[in-house]
Design brief:
This protein has 96 residues and is mainly alpha-helical. It has a domain of 65 residues. Helix content is 70%, strand content 0%. The termini are far apart. 5% of the residues are buried. It comes from Rheinheimera maricola. This is Holin. Keywords: Membrane, Transmembrane, Transmembrane helix.
Length: 96
Amino acid sequence: MPTLQLPRLFTWIILSLALIAAIAFFSPHQMPLVLYKVALVSLAAVLGYWLDRALYPYDRPHTYAETGEDLVPRGLAMLRRALIVLACVLGLTLGL
């Protein structure tokens, strides 16, 4: 009989939902602000990802091998993408 495999970060999803429920219970007037901030961070992360894809269409991290001589360029492509997403998240959340 196959075992049930939970999605990745399932515990963090449950913890996040519990914290949102706690905010809704203890401070319901703050819920629109919380949802607004969650929407901003989500939008910025998606924007950063697509900005990286648009700026570097032929240099994506998954195109490199996971081992061997392609390891350094793959790491640099992953770092580049993470920095672009970080810049978008900080820019959008601090600017508005």
